[in-house]
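Appendix B.2, paired examples.
Example (i):
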Amino acid sequence: MTDARSKAGSDGAAAAARLDRLWARGCAFLGTRTAIMGGAMSWVSERHLVSAISNAGGFGVLACGSMPPDLLAVEIAATRALTAKPFGVNLINMHPDLDRLIDVCREQGVGHVVIAGGFPSGATIKRIKDGGARAMTFAPTLVSGKRMVKLGIDALVIEGTEAGGHIGPVSTTVLAQEILPDLREVPVFAAGGIGRGEAILSYLEQGAAGVQIGTRFVCATESIAHPRFKQVFIRASARDAQASVQIDPRFPVIPVRALANAGSKRFMELQREVIAKVDRGEMTRDEGTLEIEHFWAGALRRAVIEGDVECGSLMAGQSVGLVTREQPVAEIIGDLIAQAEAALTARAVSIEADGQPVILGAA
């Protein structure tokens, strides 16, 4: 029994060491114990959740969203009051005060700035780096990733269509196969549909420096999301997280993945109504486009903060089916690590039979 326990302990230590080697590049880049980034979710990724992720060994990322510069400064300072660990700030590329927001990050000593909502210009990347921070952004293709590297980006996130919120058309598994083997110049973090440690391990072994996880943290104890919002996540399955549908190409709809509810059904009805009005000459196409675009204005806040789960926007990734209960962030990260290490241990050579290695978990 003692020998068995000793062997189990040895296998566990070997698995932990292997995992540490696999995400060493990501940990070094982020300055963290694990290479698990928190996805920047508007209204959810604020000081409490971000600091909890960082305190648990991950890398929290504040979602600036539409915040003005003065409010971002307050939120960064408040986050720093809750953690001495590294965390980053996510800025939207199309924000009208983007340059000033970058300056706020510099003034507050933020070490990592993530640009979302479009490709940052070379000038934006330079402004971030001149302020002493590392610049990160998203790459939906190998070509765009290479272009960002040439512009000086320090790291990339590849996020598949399984993710929540605004999404692209390609899955994380395909993006990983397209990008990871051929883009080695900077650390690349995989995102979208990741909710277990085995998936983290898979992307690390393909060459990812780490991962970004959002949906899995929504129901963290430290998340300020409304209890009704959390309960919807806990009850949901993967197929409930659906991408918004564009009915008519004349009226573009940016795809957003969210849990289906009365609001999403009403959005489909609104599109049909607007199309009919435009076709009858009762409104211009520009007026119709604006009405469709404004439908979801404030809807995410209504759901996350006010608990309007019927008509609000329930942005969620397909990994929502793996969210089964409310847990502290440290427990979530601990579970992910344990799952990854267990998968590694299951592959370890346990005995030699007839001179051939026998792998645990093999048929």
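Example (ii):
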Amino acid sequence: MGNGSRVQAAMRALETSLLDGTFAAGARLPAERALAERYGVSRNTIREAIQRLAARSLVHSRPGAGVYVTDRLRTGVASPWGELVADHPALRDDILEFRRVLEGATAYFAAMRASKDEIKTIESLMRTLEKARRDDDKAGEAQADAKLHEAIAKASHNAMFLHLHAGVLSVLREHIAINGTGLREQGEDASALLLLQHRTLCDAICSRRPEEARTAMQTHIDFVRRQVNEGGRLS
């Protein structure tokens, strides 16, 4: 294999790691030596592959700090959607219908494919969500909620689910939820139901029950959809 082919192969391997969330937006790439060992190529090959990725704005170098993943993969699809949602509130029902299908599938596959470490992450985020609820920290609760949904998407081990979730849905949440709190400001009953829905969802995923996980996620989205139609807010 010539040097050009080796560089191309290393670049494709790095791209796959960016797409599947192994190296998430904002993450620092491992050192060149570690990447060279991981992919079985020379450090010069890794260096050239990184330079090509940098030319496409997928990574960028911080002098003295290393090479970091940009958020380009997570924002390319999202921006037009964000603008449409902001300008056309009538799209919200379509968005929630889309979320029902997409996130139902991510929950299903997460229950099938999540690694032990990913299960631990999901359980940890659920505990964080519960603590924020006990502390009446609505902003913290909303943040933990968003991280939990992203962790489930990553655990699905489907690069497209992760990309659509991190790109499109994060922007949709930002434009529709107000101050990151959304439904939780509607009252204790709504907040308590949201917490119960997330606990049911996480239990199904962590117990590896795919159909129950999908049903739990769709039940959650259906609840959000009803609340949005009644009160015009989303979480």
